[in-house]
């Protein structure tokens, strides 16, 4: 496997006392990209081939993993290492185009592929329409980094062409998203069909980013179309807010009976929110939802009784998937728990940049949970440079530290991270060496 040494310099620069065995995390992430016996560009969800079998290329997982690789590519200064990362991104783009042109049972909404490039052809939850949107976001990020380095021709030949006949990988995804976003699809967890906050947010972001890229590459009519659809998507996304419960309901128009709290909401914000205030990390509705979601897990997992570690987070409170069986009790997931480290880090950065934070009835629950009801009951704003503001930053830092402690406590000494941690004893279970877990760890570190 190439690139096992690749990022020691970068990761040493960003590593902290929170990051235990980061080199191992990086090696394990890269070991799951184009592993032996697979087509170049494949990102296997896990090397596990039984109980459970995750040895497939999931469109969603691969897009999120490769977006982290692109972030590392942008940061890398060593030209040799940077070129190796670039090759990984190109391999992913080429394999993605091959995926698009393969026959599948649900077209571009096909959620996963065999490692030789064939579309999965057995019963599954399909379509999953967040995949093309997340893949477009990742490849647009890569395209923008190439354009900034003077490689526009590579972008035109490999990633985006205004000519429909070229079937370029980014435009193909954007056309699918822009024409199919109204259709019901399956959620992040491949269980529920309906309308999903994270899917819609990814679709909106991909179209806005696609419009900007189309302008750069002289495709104005496409840009106009993508922007129009993104605006329409906002109305649909807003329907997921439940004012009475003061949180975002992740999935609508479904036949399940869940309460609506789902870590996919926070993941969707991390993966797909932009620089505007439309459901970004410090949006009032997102702040409130993050608190209600975290609190929903505090009492249902035995391991959360240890207050010295951060709250272990699962997918959703009613989860019944234990890593092998779907009729059991759900557990905390590493990637879900790490999402809060990244979320709090980004919230802190945003607060520091804003300087002044307005407190209102929607977001008050967030500040009350961190600072206490007695402190926040009568305040209308926090100046980040005040004593209270500095205390808020310290509390956020403490939360971040405790989350890393939680994750490091339950992972192996060698740095291996699985899919889940048992809700009662904390031992790892589910798919071993889950690629998305490693990507989440690195993504959290890169958010510093």
Explained architecture:
This protein is mainly α. It is 51% helix and 6% strand. The protein has 16 helices and 11 strands. A 3-stranded antiparallel β-sheet has the order 3-4-7. Strand 10 (420-421) and strand 11 form a beta hairpin. Helix 3 runs antiparallel to helix 4 (79-101), helix 8 (197-216) runs antiparallel to helix 9 (220-238) and helix 12 runs parallel beside helix 16 (435-446). It starts with 7 loop residues before the first helix and ends with a helix. Residues 1-5 and 15-19 have low confidence and may be disordered.
Shape: globular
Major sheet size, sense and barrel closure: 3 strands, antiparallel
* Low-pLDDT sequence parts: 1-5, 15-19
- Helix-strand pattern, N to C? HHEHHEHHHEEHHEEEHHHEHHEHEEH
DSSP strand count? 11
CATH topology annotation of the largest domain: Glycosyltransferase
Secondary-structure class: mainly alpha
The neighbouring-strand order within the major sheet is 3-4-7
Strand content: 5-15%
Element layout with pairings:
Elements: H1 8-14, H2 22-31, E1 57-58, H3 59-75, H4 79-101, E2 112-113, H5 130-148, H6 152-158, H7 169-180, E3 185-186, E4 193-196, H8 197-216, H9 220-238, E5 241-242, E6 247-248, E7 251-252, H10 263-272, H11 284-298, H12 334-354, E8 356-358, H13 364-371, H14 373-376, E9 381-383, H15 387-410, E10 420-421, E11 428-429, H16 435-446
Antiparallel strand pairs: 1-2, 3-4, 4-7, 5-6, 8-9, 10-11
Helix pairs in contact: 2-16, 3-4, 3-5, 3-16, 5-6, 5-7, 5-8, 7-8, 8-9, 8-10, 10-11, 10-12, 11-13, 12-15, 12-16
């Amino acid at each position: 496997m190439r690139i096992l040494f690749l990022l020691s310099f970068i990761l040493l620069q960003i590593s902290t006392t929170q990051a235990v065995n980061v080199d191992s995390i990086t090696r394990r992430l890269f070991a799951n990209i184009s592993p032996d016996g697979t087509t170049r560009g494949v990102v296997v969800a896990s090397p596990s081939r039984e109980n459970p079998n995750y040895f497939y290329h999931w469109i969603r997982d691969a897009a999120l993993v490769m977006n982290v690789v692109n972030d590392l590519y942008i940061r890398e200064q060593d030209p040799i290492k940077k070129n190796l990362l670039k090759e990984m991104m190109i391999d992913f783009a080429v394999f993605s185009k091959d995926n698009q042109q393969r026959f599948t049972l649900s077209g571009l909404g096909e959620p996963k592929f065999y490692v030789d490039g064939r579309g999965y052809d057995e019963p599954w939850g399909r379509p999953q329409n967040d995949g093309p949107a997340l893949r477009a976001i990742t490849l647009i990020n890569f395209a923008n980094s190439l354009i900034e380095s003077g490689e526009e021709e590579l972008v035109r030949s490999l990633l985006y062409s205004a000519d429909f006949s070229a079937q370029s990988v980014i435009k193909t995804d954007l056309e699918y998203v822009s024409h199919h976003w109204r259709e019901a699809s399956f959620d992040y967890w491949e269980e529920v069909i309906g309308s999903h906050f994270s899917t819609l947010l990814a679709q909106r972001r991909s179209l806005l980013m696609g419009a900007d890229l189309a302008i750069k590459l002289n495709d104005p009519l496409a840009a106009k179309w993508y922007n129009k659809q993104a605006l329409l998507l906002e109305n649909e996304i807003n329907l997921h807010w439940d004012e009475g419960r003061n949180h975002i309901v992740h999935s609508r128009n479904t036949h399940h009976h869940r309460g609506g709290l789902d870590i996919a909401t926070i993941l969707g914000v991390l993966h797909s929110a932009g620089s505007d205030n439309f459901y970004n990390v410090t949006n009032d509705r997102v702040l409130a939802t993050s608190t209600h979601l975290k609190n929903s897990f505090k009492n249902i997992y035995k391991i959360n009784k240890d207050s010295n570690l951060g709250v272990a987070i699962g997918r959703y409170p009613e989860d019944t998937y234990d890593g092998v069986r779907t009729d059991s009790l759900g557990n905390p997931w590493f990637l879900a728990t790490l999402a809060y480290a990244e979320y709090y880090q980004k919230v802190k950065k945003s607060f520091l940049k804003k300087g002044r934070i307005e407190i209102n009835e929607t977001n008050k629950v967030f500040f009350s949970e961190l600072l206490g009801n007695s402190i926040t009951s009568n305040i209308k704003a926090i100046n980040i440079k005040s004593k209270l503001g500095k205390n808020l930053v310290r509390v956020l830092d403490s939360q971040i530290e405790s989350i890393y402690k939680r994750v490091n406590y339950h992972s192996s000494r060698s740095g291996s991270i699985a899919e889940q941690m048992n809700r009662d004893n904390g031992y790892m279970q589910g798919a071993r060496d889950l690629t998305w877990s490693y990507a989440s760890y690195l993504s959290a570190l890169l958010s510093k």
